[in-house]
Fold:
Amino acid sequence: MPGSSKFSKVLSELNRDRLFIILCAVIGVLGGALAVAFHLAITYTFKGVWRLGGIFGSEYRLYLMPLFTFLAGAVAGVCVKYFAPTAGGGGIPQTKKVFFNNFGVFKIRDIFYRFILSVVFIGGGNSAGREGPTVHLCAALSSVIAQKFGLSKSKVRDAVPAGIGAGISASFNAPLSAVSFVFEEFFGGFSNAKGAGGIFIAVAAAAAVSRILIGENPVLAISNVEFHTGWWMLICIPIALVAGFAGHWFLEGILRLRKSLMKFEKTPMWVWTALGGLLVGVLASLACAWSGYDSVFSIGYNVLLPAFDGNVALRAMLVILIFKFACTLINYATGGSGGMFSGTIVIGGMLGGVFGALFCPLFSLDSSIIGACLMMGIGACLASIVRCPITSILMIFELTLNYSLIIPIIIGNLTAYFISTRLTPLGLYDSILLQDKIALKKMASFRGRRDWANLPVSAIMTFSVEGVAASKRAGEEFERLKKSAHHYRSYAVFDDAGAFAGFAKYADLSDKNNASLMCAELISSPPNTGITPDFSITNAANYLIEKDVLEVAVVAADSREKLLGILTLHDIARQQNASENFEE
Structure:
């Protein structure tokens, strides 16, 4: 970058560790300011859109809001498709892709487009969160700053977690949660302490900037209520059970809807983004009419405080719970430029509030227990959907500054996390990347030896497979393969209809004695030896050993003739080596 070499020469004599600490402090200050600006931009944009919706009278607002969400979805979708592909989606999967697969090297344009499009999409009323885009924004900012400092690619990547932490810290005014989120989501646990000092400095600086600019209050400035330990806290268990299944349904719903939309290959994705915005606008308007709150639109936090105080009717909370769940799922699955963190908080709050509203009159308990249930619901849904259990526990206390529910929140959050991970082992962010055929070879190596073997084979398989035609002669196909930059031990054989017919070995294809034979005659392993993408790496390794083969086809669950990729024993060995090296 221009000027980076001169700047790096000036700083070349400084100790590298001290330079990194300075860098993290700068990232914290600028990242905190960027996160606050992003927060305020979304807030005031939605307020403006809401006022504009009532320009002809408040009775017409709910008829106009679907138009605004549709336009916001169309603008974001078209821009992502044609101008800013990196600004699409929730932000965290896109950040992980660049962090693990491209040394965390972002561009300045990533910051500009993500900021504008997310403000348009979320501020336009779509049910999406700002926290995922904030992570992407601040990760890109930290990367650009590190590049300006003239650091190497590996050092640029080391700086990105500091930016991620700064963004979460300023967005939620929650520095401890920001640190734990970085370690749980990006490092797969707390065993890797690399760069921890810089992350702490960045999140502290970001929190200080946030508090100076928008005040000391927590995100949920609830009344100062102390909850005393009692039998009623057992309600955390049914809340956690429902939240655990809700996390599974949410993830499955997003993945299935995305998969369904991918089948319409001729329809541009921005069309679905726009139609998703229209549908969300209609549903959110209905929810507003039936509940009296606009919390299904945009961020939606405004219902949480009155619900905590027991001032929201059971019917209203149930309506918001159902419609917020559906709308957040639709917006996230159809694209756009927004996350689902905020939606998860509202969903969890309403889930807990519904339990509290039913529980209190049934057992003649004080109405303040509804607020306690609301907090339990938020924590349990964060644990089951976001899949960061320690972060979900810490965040409740930092969001509310209330510590009196420590016992039921720990029990509820871990129970919800256990249920959701048993039903769907891979989290939402990684699942989306895999659905987009972005292999996690580098990402999975950060998970450590403890659980990498339980990942699905889709995390390490090769998606792009070169093949030969079954109806062509081996000599003719071999001449074509020789021009390729890569050579493999085996090649997939496809029939005239494009169906996978098996593998042919390179040695057989290159043998001059086989030149006149059809490739179909050289198939060494038929398609019935394939495995599906959800096979665990451990089971796949056992399968390879049992069949005494070095590679296996990864095929679709509904059709063994549909080849999705290939897994080799070398892929598994490489992953094991990467995990062991990471732990050392």
